[in-house]
Design brief:
The protein has 48 residues and is an alpha+beta fold. A hairpin with a 2-residue loop joins strand 1 and strand 2. It is elongated. The model has no long low-confidence stretch (mean pLDDT 86). InterPro entries: Cas12f1-like_TNB.
Length: 48
């Protein structure tokens, strides 16, 4: 993980380390969890 963080810093990318729970139901911009936002297995639409 440290190597990835180092590479990300070089390219100006922020790494956010999250618990695996609810990752398929979480909006990464607002960090909100909404089960109804998962339209199907490949599409999540944030309602914020």
């Amino acid at each position: 993980m440290e190597k990835l963080k180092c590479k990300a810093r070089i390219y100006g990318i922020t790494i956010i380390q999250l618990n695996e729970s609810y990752t398929s139901q979480r909006c990464l911009k607002y960090m909100s969890i909404d089960k109804t936002s998962r339209v199907h297995s490949e599409l999540y639409i944030c309602r914020e």
